[in-house]
Amino acid sequence: MELLNQISEKLQKGKAKEVKALVEQAIAENIPVKTILEEGLLSGMGIIGEKFKNNEVFVPEVLVAARAMNAGATLLKPLLAEAGVAATGKVCIGTVEGDLHDIGKNLVKMMLEGKGLEVIDLGTNVSPETYVETAKAEGCQIICCSALLTTTMPVMKDVVDAVRAADLDVKVMIGGAPVTQAFCDQIGADGYTPDAASAAEMAVKFCQA
Ligand code: B1M
């Protein structure tokens, strides 16, 4: 669809204002939120990711694209709330220590909130101690960890170990591009999902259990 292509292209060029206007137009045209997110915003970010990998674009271009992505995603947030299916539960979420990538984490947060869960956003570069102290102080049922770098994935194991050492009845969910189910099993985390929507579904199940 032409409008979704335009969102993807403007995002790749880092045109945040234009992305925002196009997303508004897509919403007004009743294009499903999931389609706008996946075929517009995430598609554009995926192309930027490939170009970044191939050294065709560099950090500044990726940063402005990320800003444009956030500008569009923010508009979708209220629409993700599903009327009448409000779950109850408290979650703290963050990107692990050493890692500054937050786009995926923000999407997971939006989806969790869309399901009615209360979310404490710890931001990026979050230490295992901060996750554990927050979960304890705030009474969270779930700790959600995101990592985008292979070098920061091991911090997720530190989080699992810290939760077990503190003897907390808290589930640890993990995700992010390099994370896999095998890694989840290996470090003894409670759940892995490949995308934000399924993360929210899993979180709801944990909170209902
Ligand atoms: Co970075 N970066 N980056 N980067 N960056 C990657 C991750 C990389 C794969 C690019 C590449 O080389 N191909 C590579 C990592 C390589 C590796 O580890 N093997 C990389 C690198 C190397 C770096 C730097 C080291 C570059 C440098 O400085 N030389 C540096 C590290 C900085 C740091 O963190 N300490 C760096 C910096 C940056 C920017 C600041 C420029 C920017 C981040 C901006 C920001 O986040 N605010 C950036 C970006 C944008 C990327 C790419 C291009 C896109 C990441 C992204 O946002 N994707 C990325 C390449 C790529 O992934 N193709 C890359 C979109 C996002 C929606 O996807 O986060 O995977 P993702 O989230 C998904 C799922 O994974 C899942 O849900 C989302 C979709 O529904 N998910 C979860 C995420 N968290 C979840 C948690 C869950 C469940 C699901 O449960 C709790």
How is this structure best described in words?
This protein has 209 residues and is α/β, with parallel strands linked by helices. Helix 8 links the parallel strand 4 and strand 5. Helix 1 runs antiparallel to helix 2 and helix 5 crosses helix 9. The protein contains nine helices and five strands, in the order H-H-H-H-E-H-E-H-E-H-E-H-E-H. The chain is globular and about 50 Å long. The structure holds CO-5-methoxybenzimidazolylcobamide (B1M). CO-5-methoxybenzimidazolylcobamide binds next to helix 3, helix 4, helix 5, strand 3 and strand 4.
At a glance:
By secondary structure, the chain is of the alpha/beta class. The chain has nine helices and five strands, in the order ααααβαβαβαβαβα. It has two domains: 2-82, Orthogonal Bundle (Methyltransferase, Methionine Synthase (B12-binding Domains), Chain A, domain 1), CATH 1.10.1240.10; 90-208, 3-Layer(aba) Sandwich (Rossmann fold), CATH 3.40.50.
